[in-house]
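Predict both folds.
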Amino acid sequence: MIGNDNVQGEYYLTDIIALARDHGVVIQTHQPAAIEEVQGVNNRLQLAELERYYQRRKAEELMMSGVTLSDPQRLDVRGELCSGADTFIDINAVFEGRVVLGNGVSIGPNCQIIDSVVGDHVEIKANSVIEGAQIDDHCVVGPFARLRPGTELAGGAKVGNFVETKKTRVGRGSKINHLSYVGDAELGEQVNVGAGTITCNYDGVNKHRTEIADDAFIGSNSSLVAPVRIGRQATVGAGSTITRDVPDKELGLARSEQKNIAGWERPVKKP
């Protein structure tokens, strides 16, 4: 048994060697490639120094495999990162879990990618967070996008700034460009989702699905109350709250009639 009968009163991992010898275990030696591999950690400063050494080694491996790093000192790989050739990674990128990047991928600054697969020639713009997602070739994500677990982007799809997706498949060539939340949904091909659109997928107890078929157009500031289906080549007028299915090629419009009041005077502050 390892003891702490020493001046410091500490338990030393190296005492295992003597213990193994006393028990007849064959002891073999191995020469470390660098002193950092056997360097002890006694405080947070030393721990940070060894972490940067590890990250520098990972950065060197990536660059030798054909990845361009804007600054090798500002990269964090906290798991397994596999990348194809001609990929560019800007500063402060963080990779967690198992991440696979294809060829010709471009990752902007301050991005976090967790347990995701990214296809060839994908552009991930600044400040995007991607977790548990599958992104096919030639997609564009961000800036300031959040892809939550279960997101799948087919080839050429676009998810733009301040858009959040969850358990959603976005079909080939479809776009969710601005300020939208799309969760528990299936989008066909060439769908255009306008700014401020949300899928109302949670009723307080259960989650419900939204289906948007090929070539549908969703006007800005629309609420799609699931379960609901928007048909092929259907249109949802801007500002609508849709609670029933919209058939193929039809226009769904659900908003109150505008009223203009003549002669109305705006209130003014009294001096």
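Second protein follows, with its predicted structure tokens after the sequence.
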Amino acid sequence: MDLIDIGLNLTHDSFDPDRDAVVERAIAAGVSQFVLTGSSVAGSDEAIRLAATRPGRFFATAGVHPHHAKEFDQETVPALSALTASPHCVAIGECGLDFFRNFSTPAQQEHAYREQLLLAARTKLPVFLHQRDAHGHFVGILKEHLNEIPRAVAHCFTGGPDELATYLELGLYIGITGWICDERRGHHLQEIVGEIPRDRIMVETDAPYLLPRDLDPKPKSRRNEPAYLPHILVTVARAMSCDPEELGAATTANARRFFAVQPPG
């Protein structure tokens, strides 16, 4: 397979002891390219610096996760804008709303979200979106800016059929993680994932988080890795009643189109 993990936190300190080995395991498993998630200004800078070590194989996003929205100040947009000048930066985000945790207030989150959508419109970069327990507000704000943004993906989609229908109607791409492998929380995803058009679905691990629950054997560390992306893909293909190779090729084509990247040289 030739897969792209569109969302992983490769700068996470759990990868510090063996980051290169993690990447090599993923490449051996068929994951050829990786989009590293930026969740704060400092984290985005770190992701872009890491992406520069393997150009054409690593890419990165630049953004402020809603958990960090309380850190968003007058210096944030200029800092993110400077990061987007890097050829390794391929999207704005992770940005959006998370009213489940509310580590930042809803007002702080909405301000940071709007500012990053405006930045995406100015830079003509796609947006890498996060939403949890905030669907109505999230969609309302997105609609104000969507016409100016080239592309948007609902990263780590875990919602129900109504949320999915809304996102698809708005033209969003959908990112599916190992959440679909969880027989307790992800069963509903297996029932609705077939509604996603083949030209709008992408796959991701969100590593080191969201280790697929049905992975056997599980790593003792309980750490998710990009090498498990093919396992997620097979689960998605089974739920969609399609061939994993064909679905894998579709998700890769979608990711390259979405992030405007070429296959590795």
